[in-house]
Specification:
5 helices, elongated
Length: 159
């Protein structure tokens, strides 16, 4: 169980680093102001999430680095391939929202798993830190849904 927890934390750390690196590239293509602001806000949150993961790793006596998150790597590559095929505008914004939500859903699943592992191992403080990040990821996903359904998707469908 300890090895699985170590792998999970390292995978999350890699995923967050990759996401943080990719977000400016995605945000740069965005036309919608609310979507651009959501990316800016989430970049700041991701920096804090990385710090939380470093704190968790220290508490568990593990190194935060050590894994490459192949899932996030694939999601980012897929997003980049998709938006490279699209012209800037509403359709690209809708595609970017979809790509970002795929990334968020991966993180939500991973943080949920890590939180449950920590709870079952009696690591309550670690579980609380993971729950905090899990809640942030869920809020970001919901914010992206609101942006998509409050105009971006409808505008994209009209193009």
């Amino acid at each position: 169980m300890d090895e699985f927890m170590e792998h999970t934390i390292q995978d999350l750390y890699s995923a967050e680093q990759q996401a943080l690196e990719a977000m400016p590239q995605l945000a740069e293509r965005v036309q919608n102001d609310k979507l651009r602001q959501a990316f800016t806000t989430h970049m700041r949150e991701t920096e804090q999430q990385l710090q939380r993961l470093e704190q968790i790793a220290q508490q568990l006596g593990i190194e935060p680095e050590g894994e490459v998150c192949l899932a996030m790597q694939g999601l980012i590559e897929e997003a980049q391939d998709l938006i490279d095929q699209l012209e800037d505008g509403e359709l690209a914004d809708a595609a970017i929202i979809g790509a970002a939500q795929k990334m968020e859903h991966y993180e939500i699943a991973s943080y949920g798993t890590a939180r449950t592992l920590a709870q079952q191992a009696g690591q309550q403080q670690v579980a609380e830190l993971l729950e905090q990040t899990l809640n942030e990821e869920k809020a970001t996903d919901e914010k992206l849904t609101v942006i998509a359904t409050s105009g971006v998707n409808q505008q994209a469908a009209q193009k």
